[in-house]
Design a protein that fits this description.
The protein has 194 residues and is mostly helical. It contains eight helices and two strands; from the N terminus they run αββααααααα.
C-alpha cells in the first residue's frame, strides 16, 4: 500500500526544495522507512532490496541490474514521448518500435527461451521482471501487436501480469496512472519549465 502525491504547481516544488527534502533539488522523492529517497535508480534499488526483488546473490543482483538498465533505456524513450512536438511523436513511435524489436526484445526473448525459468533471473519475481512488464505494457499502448514475433515475451507478459499484486495494480480503479495526456504534459511544463 502506498500514497502518491503529485506536484500540481511550481510553488509545491519550491517548497520541497526550500525545505531541504530533495537532496539534489529534483523529484521523484519517496518517503520510506524514515528516509527521503531521491534518484529513480536508488529508489528502485531500495524497494527491490526491501521486498526481495533484487536476487539472492551477487550474480543474480548483477543480472537484474543489467536487465533493468537496458530496459530503462527503452522505457525512458516512452516516458519522454508525450513531451515531443506532435509532428515528431509518430516518428518516435517508429523509432521506439524498431529499437524494441531489433535491440531489446530479442535479448529478453532469448533469455526466457534459453534458461527455461519462470522469470528473467532465478525462480522468483525480480525488479527486472517488473520493469520489463511496465515497458512492454507502455509500448503495447502505442503498438498493440509489438510482441507478435516474441512468443516467450507474450507468455512472460501474461504470467507477470497475473502475479496477484501486479494483477491488482493493473485492474481498473487501481493506483495505476493512465498514459500521459495533454493536461499532464501542460502541468509538467508549468512546474518544471524555466
Amino acid at each position: 500500500m502506498f500514497d502518491e502525491e503529485f506536484l500540481e504547481t511550481r510553488e509545491q516544488l519550491h517548497k520541497l526544495q526550500k525545505g531541504k527534502h530533495l537532496l539534489f533539488q529534483q523529484v521523484p522523492m519517496v518517503e520510506i522507512d524514515g528516509m527521503k529517497l531521491v534518484q529513480t535508480r536508488s529508489i528502485l534499488h531500495y524497494i527491490a532490496e526491501k521486498y526481495h526483488l533484487f536476487g539472492s546473490d551477487l550474480k543474480e543482483k548483477t543480472l537484474i541490474d543489467m536487465y533493468v538498465e537496458g530496459t530503462l533505456d527503452l522505457l525512458e524513450m516512452i516516458i519522454t514521448h508525450p513531451f515531443l512536438k506532435p509532428e515528431d511523436q509518430q516518428k518516435e513511435v517508429v523509432s521506439m518500435t524498431q529499437k524494441a524489436v531489433i535491440r531489446y526484445f530479442p535479448v529478453f526473448e532469448k533469455i526466457l527461451r534459453d534458461h527455461g525459468q519462470k522469470f528473467l533471473v532465478g525462480n522468483q519475481l525480480s525488479l527486472a521482471d517488473v520493469i520489463l512488464l511496465q515497458t512492454i505494457l507502455a509500448l503495447e499502448e502505442k503498438v498493440p501487436n509489438i510482441l507478435a514475433a516474441f512468443p516467450h515475451l507474450q507468455e512472460f507478459t501474461v504470467k507477470i501480469s497475473n502475479v496477484p499484486t501486479i494483477k491488482k495494480f493493473l485492474e481498473p480503479g487501481s493506483k495505476k496512472k493512465p498514459p500521459p495526456d495533454d493536461v499532464y504534459v501542460r502541468t509538467v511544463y508549468t512546474i518544471f519549465a524555466p
